[in-house]
Write a structure and sequence with these properties.
Helix content is 42%, strand content 15%. By secondary structure, it is α/β, with parallel strands linked by helices. The protein has one domain (6-249): Aldolase class I (TIM Barrel, Alpha-Beta Barrel). An eight-stranded parallel beta sheet has the order 7-6-5-4-3-2-1-8. The longest helix has 18 residues, at 182-199. 41% of the residues are buried. It is an enzyme of class 5 (isomerase).
Length: 252
Amino acid sequence: MKRRPLIAGNWKMHLDSVKARQLAQDLIPAAAARAGNCDVMIAPSPTLLPVVSEAIKDSVIILGAQNVCWATQGAFTGETSPAMLLELGCRMAIIGHSERRHIFAEDDRLINKRLSGALEHGLIPILCLGETLEARQQDQTFKVLEGQLRSALINISIKNPAKLIIAYEPVWAIGTGQTATTEQAQEVHVFLRQLIGDIFDKTIASGIRILYGGSVKPETMAALMSQEDIDGVLVGGAALDAESFSKIINYS
């Protein structure tokens, strides 16, 4: 099954409203140029969602959120419901990012709840998985990833592979300047696709997009995207620069 590439930018806690609007507008030409064969998503900070939503409303760029609550409403201080995100124009939501796991101690149970809530309300989750440097050095990569994936998908049913996206983000490569080799990334993506086949079925596994995230740069894109099981990227720092992110979008 041919999978449509997704280039996703996670802006994290950066930019003000003026810079966010300008960056979003600057990315529109690159996204339009690739509209026939590639999806582009940007995920600003929550307070910037209205500004960015307005800036890209007539473009092909997809608006995403950096996190999502499982509940529709209620006493959940600091959280944002799926309905609120949908109202702002969000179609995707990042869930389980390594910074949420390690800085804010979000565990597999909470990530499962967020994933379930997103799916229930029609948001497409980008489920992030990844091992630490210590786990990789101890040859525990596959064990860690299997635990994260199986835990996140407890009681989750997927009938349409387009409704779920997986992002492999080796923790040791995020914000460090280090990048997994194309062979390392492909090896993990193959493992994850096989595991998805075990959890669901081979049809779902062959259709689900699996992204790579970890210090992605314009110069690493062509090699990453040449791999059969790498269906796009989740970009951090380089997504904050219009020129760099446009080059990533326009990889050859």
